Please model this.
Amino acid sequence: MKTITRFVVSAVLPSVLSLYASALELTCAPGTLSGMVAEPSAVTELVLKGQADASDLLYIGSEMPSLRRLDLSGCIVSDGIPAGAFAGTKLAAVVFPQSGRFTVGDFAFAGTRLQNVDIPETVSALGTGAFAGCPELETATVRGTSTEGYTFANCSALKKVTLVDIATIANGDFADCPSLATVEGSHACISIGASAFRGAVSLAAFDFGDRLRSLGASSYSGSGLREVSLAGCPLLDVVGERAFADSRALTSFSVSDKARIGRGALMGCTALEHLSMGSANNVPDYFATGAGSLKSVELPSEAASLGRYALKGASSVTAVNLPEGISLLNDHAMDGMTSLKSISAEDVAVVPALGEGVFEGIEQAEVLLTVGDGMVDDFSAAPVWQDFMILGKSGVSVPDTPHTHSIRGRFNGKILEIETDGDEISCVELFDAAGRFLMSLKVSGTTAYADTSSSDTNLYIVRCTTASSAVAILKLAR
Model:
C-alpha cells in the first residue's frame, strides 16, 4: 500500500519546504504560497488552510501541473478565484471555501477534468464560462448564486444539474450539453436566458414553475423536450425567438394567456401534434413552420393576425378556428396545409385581409368555411375567400348549381341518409358544427348512408357532391 505523507507548514516559518511527496496540507497567509513549496510540479493533492489571495491561486494553477485534487474548504479566499486560474489543467476535484464570500472568475475552471461540482452559498457569483468545456463533468449543484452566462456550456458528459434557490439561469449556462437529462429545482426560476439549454437533446422534461417570467431566444432550441406546458406560468411575459425551435421530440405545446411569443418559437418541431395558445398575445412569423405532424391547433383567442409562414407546412391539420378579432393573415401563413377540411370563422366580424400565398397548396373548393350568418355575402364577395365552400353559421347554404334542390338528407337513428332525384351521388363529407372534418364517403348511386354512431356530436354539416358536380351543403340535427 502506498503511504502518502502530509506536511503541515505554518506561513510564519521561514524555511522552504522541499517536497517529494504527492500530497500537501498547508496553512498560509495571502501571497506566501509560492515560497513554501520547492517542487510544486510533484503535488497531486493540496489541502490549503488559512488565507489565500489571487496570486496564490494563480501559482497553484500554473506551477502545479500534476494537481488532481484541491481542497479549499478551510481557506478564506480574499480576492476570489481569478479568471482562468485553473483553465485547461488536469484538476479532477475541487472543494470550495466554506466560509467568507467570494467569486469565481471567468473561465476559472474551464476545460478541467472535474467530474462533479458542488457550488456552496459562499460563492456570490460565477463568471462567464466558469466551468465550460469540462469533458468529464457529470453532475453539478449550484446554490443561491448568480452566473454571468455559459457557466457549464459544452460539458459533453454533464447528466444532472441541481439548482438550489436559483432565480435566474443566464444565457447559455447549459448550452450544448447533449447528455443533460435531469434538472432539479427549476421550478423556482424566474428567468431563463437565451440559449440556456440549447442542444440539450437528452433533456426530455423540464419543470416550468409558476414564478417564471421570461424565456430567452433559443433557450431550448434543439432540446429533447417532449411536452411543454407553460399554461401554469401566469406571470410569463415573453417566449423568445426560436425558444423551442428544432426540438424534434416535442409533441405538445401550451402557453399562458399573457405571453408574447417570438418569431419561430416552434419552427422545425417536426413531431409536434398538439398546439394550444389560450389567449396569448400573438401568432408570430415562422411560429410553427414545418410542423408536419401537427393535428390540432388552438390559436390564441385575442390574436389580430397570423404571422408570415406561421403554420406553413402543417400538412396534417384538418381544422382551423380563426379568432374573433383576426384581421390579417400574412404571407404564406397557412401555405401547405394540404389536409385542411374546414375553417371556422363564425365569430369573425370583418373579412381578414390576406398576404401573398396564404392558402397555397390548399384545395379551397374542398374546404368548408363556416362564417357568421351576416358575413356570408362579405366572404362570398372577397377575392380568394370566395373560393372556399362557404356556409352560414345556421341553416343551409345556397346551392351552387340550380340542380341541388333535389338533394335531401335526414337521420334514421344514428344513420344519416342522403338521397337525390336522379343524379348519382359521388361523395359525402361530414363536419361537426364547428367545421371540423369527421369523415368522407365515396358513393356510387342515388342514395348514401353514413354511420355516425362513433361520433358524440348531434349537429352535422354535410357536403354532398353529385356525379354532375352539383354540390349542396346541409346542416342536419341527429
Remarks:
- The first strand starts at residue 8 and ends at 9.
- The helical segments are 54-63, 376-381.
- Residues 26 and 442 are 88 Å apart (CA to CA).
